[in-house]
Amino acid sequence: MNLHRFFWRELTLVGARLYDRSDFERAVTLVADGTVPAERLISKVVPLTEAPAAFEALEGGGDVMKILVDCTDDAQGATR
User: Fold this and answer.
1) Would you kindly state where each structural domain of the chain is located, as residue ranges?
2) Which of 12, 43, 57, 59 has its CA 20 to 30 A from that of 65?
3) Other Cβ atoms closer than 10 A to 65
4) Pick from 15, 76, 79: nearest CA to 67
5) Number of neighbours of residue 38 by Cβ within 10 angstroms
6) Closest CA to 76 of 56, 55, 46
């Protein structure tokens, strides 16, 4: 990784720890065969304009598991 470029572009790096390839393969299998209902993991899909409120909801806890931010032009104003 070119760290100079990374910092120059002000990128954010997010990593996962304690998981290896076999863990991710197992997770994909569990979702694919319906053992884990993926639709229940996503609490809400919001347009980019609602991202700040989505982050506040995540920080607030409660019944929020995951909120997806849809950055496409078509998503503006649409929520699920």
Assistant:
1) 3-75
2) 12
3) 11
4) 79
5) 12
6) 46
Residue with tokens 């849809």: 70
Which residues lie below 8 Å from residue 30, measured CB to CB, with a gap of 6+?
36
Contacting residues for 21 by C-beta, under 8 A, at least 6 apart: none
Q: Assign 34 to helix, strand or coil.
A: coil
CB 51 within 8 A of CB 69: yes
* DSSP H or E stretch at residue 38: helix 38-41
Distance CA 76, CA 50 (A): 9
Q: What are phi and psi of 23, to 5 degrees?
A: -65, -45
Judge whether residue 44 has pLDDT over 60: yes
44, amino acid identity: K
Global pTM reads 0.51
Mean pLDDT value across the chain = 85
